[in-house]
Amino acid sequence: MSPALEAVLARAGLQVTPDEFLSLVADAAKRLAPPHPDPGGYFSPDQREALVEVGLDLGPHRPSDDQGRARTVVAHAVLRDSALTVADAARQLGVDTSRIRHRLGVGRLVGWKDRGSWRLPAWQFAGDGVLPGLEAVLAAVPADQPALVVAGFMTTEQEDLSVDGEPTSPREWLLAGGDPRRVTALAAQLGTPA
């Protein structure tokens, strides 16, 4: 396996071998890649017309689409690999696994089911606790937003949040003691047109 890939995984802090990482990428690609190269083929003519009117691109797959898909697949694989199990999260927070499942159920932690087991993105944990303001932020996130979108938002620099004059991610903002209301206002806009 490529020493370069091993080095990248080590620098990223991912506890996975290159073969395991590539397997995760292949698995994510299978789940995220559309099985039909022409998404318009799934809809009736009336449905296609209505969807195109609201701005959806139902055109067939283009080679230029591959870069964005590749980024999404890799982001999904990294999110999955760095996620905690319920048992891991319980150990980190010093609570019973039933408390973690309860928090997931009431929206005080975010996660997704992967082959029948919960996976909890690591970005929401800090030391032996959860990210400051996490509960308020998660309450503001629209219910239809998937874990990958929320993770991307929480770990991407936002112009509206700055620490020492530099744009920062919502996660870094909250860790630096920033007001959670600034993040909740941004989180509430996830999935809405700009």
How would you describe what is shown here?
With 194 residues, this protein is mainly alpha-helical. It has two domains: 3-81, no CATH class; 83-187, no CATH class. The protein is built from ten helices and six strands, in the order ααααααββββααββαα. The strands form three sheets. The chain has a two-stranded antiparallel ribbon. α5 (86-93) packs across α6 and α7 (134-140) runs parallel beside α10.
**Biggest pleated sheet:** 2 strands, antiparallel
Counted up, domains total: 2
Report, as a whole number of angstroms, the end-to-end distance: 42 Å
Structural class: mainly alpha
Radius of gyration: 19 Å
Question: Strand tally, please?
Answer: 6
Total DSSP helices: 10
Give the strand content: 5-15%
Shape: globular
Helix-strand sequence: HHHHHHEEEEHHEEHH
> What does the average pLDDT come to?
81
Q: Largest sheet, order of strands side by side?
A: 1-2
Organism: Saccharothrix longispora
Protein name: DNA-binding protein
